[in-house]
Amino acid sequence: MVGAVGGPRGSGVAAGLAGDLMTAMHDAGDPFVPVRAVSYRKARFKVAGKIKIDPDYETGKVQAAAVAALREAFSFARRRFGEPVVLSEVIALVQSIAGVVAVDLDSLYRTGTTVKLNTRLEADLPNGGDPATSGAAELLTLDPAPFELEVMP
Question: What is the SS3 assignment for 15-48?
Fold first, then answer.
């Protein structure tokens, strides 16, 4: 069995800490079950689009709230290993911001891949098999680079 671990705020896990974790798991569990703790694999995605804002709201505040909501919802602290990102989830989140009337996303894609509008981005999980060779799970988070969330007229 392979267990993916991550340090504070998404940092990697030092070998000494991973070793201590392994010792604790063996001490508390079945010593005949092969277990390996590995640092998770970072995966990032980007999003871009437009929002229409109710004229009764301050454009800058609504736009900032939408960006902040996306950053929070798709952060290391809020995501799970192997959890996909779904287009409808991103749209629903932005649409839930007070003052947002409409959302039109132009792109949703993994960082480093072709810019396009995907309906779902997968995050890898270990594929089973030999724990000594299984890879770590991915944690798919929003790329920290600035992104476009333009305001529709």
Answer: HHHHHHHHHHHHHHCCCCCCCEEEECEEEEEEEE
Which residue is listed with tokens 């792109």? 107
* CA–CA dist 102, 62 (Å, integer): 12
From the number of C-beta atoms within 10 Å of its C-beta (0-12, 13-18, 19+), residue 93 rates as: middle
Residues in the chain where the model's pLDDT stays below 70: 1-15, 17-19, 21-23, 25-26, 34-38, 127-135
pTM of the predicted model, to two decimals?
A: 0.77
To which residue do tokens 């409409």 refer? 102
The reported pLDDT for the residue numbered 13 is: 62
CB-CB neighbours of 105 under 10 Å: 16
DSSP 123: -
Q: What are the DSSP calls for 129-145, one per residue? A: S-TTTPPPPEEEEE-SS
Q: Is 87 exposed, middle or buried (0-12, 13-18, 19+ CB in 10 A)?
A: middle
Decide: 121 and 84 in contact? Cβ < 8 Å.
yes
